[in-house]
Amino acid sequence: MTNIKMPALSPTMTSGTLAKWLVKEGDNVKSGDIIAEIETDKATMELESIDDGIVNKILFKEGEQNIEVGTVIAKIGDDDQSDDEIISNSS
């Protein structure tokens, strides 16, 4: 299971807005695929997947603001992981 976290898009960034998801739960992604758009007070940046797998869980809705840098916003894993495994791995 790979945790996708809110990135720091600048040295001074402490939080961001999840502007738009470009994937949905159940989608296959490859490392480097653009999966979301993150907004700061200065710019909108694309967020890439850091691993191959299936989007198992999206933890924040589009438009959610003030998500702290380092907060897990999605989980990517294998297609054979159940919801129970995803939940227990997120603890």
Provide a descriptive summary of the structure in words.
This protein is mainly β. The protein has a single domain (2-89), classed as OB fold (Dihydrolipoamide Acetyltransferase, E2P) (Beta Barrel), CATH 2.40.50.100. The chain is 8% helix and 42% strand. It has 1 helix and 8 strands. The strands form 2 sheets. It has a 4-stranded antiparallel beta sheet with strand order 1-8-6-3, with no helix packed on it. A hairpin with a 4-residue loop joins β4 and β5. The protein is elongated, with a radius of gyration of 13 Å. The protein starts with a strand and ends with a helix.
Layout of secondary structure:
Blueprint: E1 2-5, E2 15-21, E3 28-29, E4 34-39, E5 44-48, E6 53-58, E7 67-68, E8 72-77, H1 83-89
Antiparallel strand pairs: 1-8, 2-4, 2-7, 3-6, 4-5, 6-8
